[in-house]
Each structure stands twice: as structure tokens, then as C-alpha cells.
Design a protein that fits this description.
With 494 residues, this protein is an alpha+beta fold. It is 47% helix and 13% strand. Strands 2-1-10-11-7-6 form a six-stranded mixed sheet, with no helix packed on it.
């Protein structure tokens, strides 16, 4: 956790100022977190070449939220202190509250062009979902209910950024956790103390963990009798002793310039494997302990999964708007914008983008209110669009690829070709388009390449395909949410 968040989890008694980007960067700078990259410990993720671009992009989100001009969109009064806090932590009591969360997330998503999936509003939605239904936790112990409410308050009032790791490593998926070759391969509880629990093992995919204040570690995979040690949920500071963060290769580290890699250099949030080497967690930060039922119910009997993925679809809708703008500009610079076949293809792409956007809003217009007064986004609208995301995304990317043709392959090697007079003259003569200078044209095409052709783009293709989990799991959620009873009554009437 940051220097701020590593303090006591006791609820704040006084209002705190909004957290700025500079404060955020200072709080994670050399705070003792153990992030490993290229076999070495990264001392400072805010300045290291692999991480600094994403860290600055995240800091920008803090500044947007702290800007008084954005207060109505980005914040709401803390129920505890009355001070402005991020709206993503709000527990919605009306459809209007849910819509307000969307507007807030859309504002942040547009700052990253929908390219950062684990911005602070994602896991904040899960915490809000837990705090909305303490009744689910109290069934398994009053202290668990108190813990989720307390931690939500602290995270909300201190403007904390959480990531999460809720999937076990892919070692042997044919066996449950307790039957692996080593019982400490999957993250689990290995010791109970009077003051807390000790965790050991590994968990993934902790996207953004290198930058987060804390990580929520639990398991969303089905667990079976015998797996009780792995049925836990705990909020762990990112700089907790014994927690090691192993990130994948950074695409930002290989970006030669912002001009040549305008997306890779700024928005690679990095995915990570967490290794817990006897990590201690105090009881007050434990939401679930050795409880198969609660470990399952935290996702489905609370609106946590719905809130988190409502935000995810807001982010995806923003990404598709960016894709549509990028495609339109590409067609303009290549002079094919008005051609009927291109118009047809653009129309089809726009239809898919509009469906995603409309389904996000349908989650609000078709929202339900449970017996405790908690608003749930429409599950049918949510899981419908999630089920098709893995098919829509490659289809739209392929359309952009077709419209780009060879334009994104035959590009100057780097920005330096514009800086050498011996090469710049030829480039400016042969690569320019009507109404666009050579440099403007190349900048747009480099942007297209970074979106669909680079390593960063390849990761995004895979990321969107499995964003909500394997497609068959999401479609099972859709099957459970759909009103088959109402549909079959129509058949009976016939």
C-alpha cells in the first residue's frame, strides 16, 4: 500500500483533501514495494522506464478527480466526513446513482482512451458491492461484515487505488487447489494468529498491482471441499512484507518515443503474478476466511461483480468510441472516406459500438432494487454484452485492419527520419496526404499500428477476449440471468 494507505485502517475522523496526482506518485515512490522486472528489484515505479508512462497516466486521473471544475461528475460527499470522495465508491440507491457512476467512469476512461482496464474505479466497484450487502457477510460472522464496511470507508475517504488478484496460477487446472503437487502453489492461509492470518502461494492476474495502494486477494474460481485454506479474501498493502510483484514484459520499455508508440508508452498498466511469501494480514483487513460459501457468495450474492463489470463496460464503450474515431480519421487521410463500400463498413462498425454503449445504459434503465434498497445493474444487459465482447472486439479490429491496408506497414522507421534533412524531404513529398502533412499522417498511422499491430495491441486483443473470464463462463452467467421462464410461457400459450 502507499505510504498513505499503509497507515492504520481505523476510519478517518476528519475530512481529507482530494488526493492529487503528485500526492499519488509521491505515495508510491520508493515505498518499499517489491516489484521485479528483468530479474531486478524496481526501486521506484514512478521513474523506471517500464512503468513511468502508466504511472503518470494514472496520476492524471487523480488530478481530473481533484479538479474543482469536475467535482459534480467525479465526486460525492462522504457519508462519514462530508468531504468529496470518488463517486466510484458510492453505493447506488437509485438508477440515477448508477448513471452518475457511469458518467464518472466515462470521464476517466476517456483520459486513457479506454486502454487501461484497471483504473481505480474498477476494484472500487467491487468494494462498493461488498459494502452494499454486509448481510451476506454477517451470515458467516459479524466481524466480516464490519470489516468490509470499515475497509470500504477507509478506501473511499482516503481515495485509495486497489488492484486485485483473484485467479490461481495455471499450474495444473485438472486438480483442485488442495491436490496440487505443493499445497502452497495457490495462494492460501498457512497460519492463523491472534492478530491475523498468514498467506503463502501465488495468485494472478494482478493488472495494475505495480501502481496500486493495495491489492484485494481472493479466489473467483470454483473451490471444492478440501480447498478451505484457499477460500479467503483479504486487502493487502502493495508494500506488505513478503509480497512480491512479478510483472510481465513492459511494452513501454521498448517504446522508442511517444511519437512512434503513442499508446504503448503511456497506457501499459502491466499484468502481474503475485507471490506471497508468508504475508501477514491483520484480521480487520480479512473479509473471508476458510469459507467456501462466502468466497463464492462475495461475487454473486452481492452486486460486486455487477458494479465492477458495469465500470468495465463503460471503459470498453469508451475504447470503441476511440476506435471509431481512429478508423474515421484513417479513412480521411487515405482518401477513401466517401467510398460506398467504406461507408458500409464504417456503418457496421458503428452499429457494434452503439450496441455496446446502449447495453451499458440498459444496465441502468433496467436496473433492479433488492429488498435492502440496493440497486443492481441489469444482469441480462450486463452479461449479454460481456458474452459478446470477445467476438465484437476482434471483428472491429479486423475491420480497422482491412481499411488500413498496407498504410500501417510502410511507415518511416521513427521520428528521427523527420529530423534528418536528407530523409525528411523524401518523406514529406511521398507520404503526405491532401489536407495532412507527412508528419500528421505518419502520427495517425503510428497510432493505428500501436492500436492493432504492436505487442501492446496484441495484449489488448487477448485481454478483451478474456476480460470477464473464459467466454463459456460468461455465457453461463447469461444463461442464469435470462428470463427463460417467461420465454417458455409463450411456447406454452401456443
Amino acid at each position: 500500500m502507499s505510504k498513505l494507505a499503509a497507515k492504520s485502517v481505523a476510519p478517518a475522523t476528519t475530512a481529507r483533501p482530494m488526493r492529487s496526482g503528485a500526492h499519488y506518485l509521491a505515495s508510491i515512490k520508493e515505498d518499499g514495494r517489491h516489484v521485479y522486472y528483468d530479474g531486478e528489484l524496481v526501486r521506484d515505479v514512478t521513474t523506471h522506464a517500464a512503468f513511468k508512462g502508466a504511472a503518470r497516466s494514472l496520476a492524471r486521473l487523480f488530478d481530473v478527480a481533484a479538479d474543482p471544475a469536475n467535482a459534480e461528475t467525479m465526486t460525492f460527499p462522504s457519508p462519514k466526513t462530508g468531504a468529496p470522495v470518488w463517486r466510484c465508491y458510492q453505493v447506488p440507491k437509485t438508477a440515477a446513482d448508477l448513471a452518475a457512476r457511469r458518467v464518472m467512469s466515462a470521464r476517466w476512461a476517456e483520459e486513457t482512451f479506454g486502454l487501461m482496464g484497471r483504473t481505480p474505479d474498477h476494484v472500487a466497484g467491487f468494494l462498493a458491492g461488498y459494502a452494499a450487502k454486509p448481510s451476506v457477510f454477517v451470515e458467516h460472522g459479524k466481524h466480516f461484515a464490519e470489516n468490509v464496511v470499515r475497509y470500504h470507508e477507509v478506501a473511499r475517504d482516503h481515495h485509495l487505488y486497489l488492484s486485485y488478484a483473484i485467479v490461481p496460477p495455471q499450474i495444473d487446472r485438472s486438480k483442485p487447489a488442495h491436490k496440487q503437487s505443493d499445497p502452497t502453489l495457490h495462494a492460501g492461509v498457512v497460519k492463523e494468529r491472534d492478530d491475523g492470518i498468514v498467506l503463502k502461494g501465488a495468485q494472478q492476474l494482478a493488472t495494475g498491482a505495480a501502481f496500486a495502494d493495495a491489492v484485494y486477494i481472493s479466489c473467483i474460481h470454483p473451490l471444492t471441499p478440501g480447498d478451505e485454506a484457499y477460500a479467503f479474501g483479504a486487502a493487502v498493502p502493495a508494500n506488505a512484507p513478503g509480497l512480491k510483484i512479478y510483472t510481465r514484459r513492459s511494452y513501454a520499455a521498448g517504446a522508442t518515443s511517444n511519437f512512434d508508440y503513442p499508446l504503448s508508452s503511456r497506457f501499459d498498466e502491466t499484468d502481474a503474478l503475485l507471490v506471497l511469501d508468508d504475508v501477514f494480514v491483520p484480521w480487520e483487513n480479512v473479509f473471508c476466511h476458510r469459507n467456501l460459501a462466502l468466497c463464492r457468495d462475495q461475487w454473486w450474492r452481492t452486486p460486486s461483480h455487477s458494479y465492477g463489470n458495469h465500470q468495465a463496460q463503460v471503459r470498453y464503450a469508451a475504447k470503441l468510441r476511440f476506435l471509431m474515431g481512429l478508423t474515421k480519421r484513417l479513412c480521411e487521410i487515405t482518401g477513401v472516406d466517401a467510398m460506398p463500400p467504406v461507408q458500409i463498413q464504417l456503418g457496421e462498425m458503428a452499429a457494434f459500438a452503439t450496441i455496446v454503449d446502449a447495453m451499458v445504459r440498459a444496465q441502468e434503465s433496467e436496473a433492479t432494487v433488492d429488498s435492502e434498497g440496493t440497486v443492481w445493474p441489469s444482469k441480462t444487459a450486463l452479461y449479454a454484452v460481456m458474452s459478446l465482447q470477445g467476438e465484437i472486439n476482434p471483428r472491429l479490429n479486423n475491420s480497422l485492419r482491412e481499411l488500413a491496408g498496407g498504410s500501417i506497414i510502410m511507415l518511416p522507421s521513427s521520428i528521427k527520419d523527420f529530423e534528418n534533412p536528407a530523409t525528411a524531404a523524401d518523406i514529406e513529398r511521398y507520404i503526405a496526404s491532401p489536407g495532412f502533412s507527412a508528419k500528421d499522417r505518419v502520427a495517425i498511422l503510428k497510432l493505428v499500428w500501436d492500436f492493432i499491430g504492436s505487442e501492446f495491441a496484441g495484449r489488448h486483443e487477448q485481454y478483451e477476449k478474456f476480460y470477464g473470464g473464459a467466454s463459456f463462463l460468461v455465457k453461463q452467467n447469461m444463461a442464469r440471468a435470462y428470463d427463460f421462464a417467461g420465454a417458455t410461457k409463450m411456447v406454452e400459450r401456443v
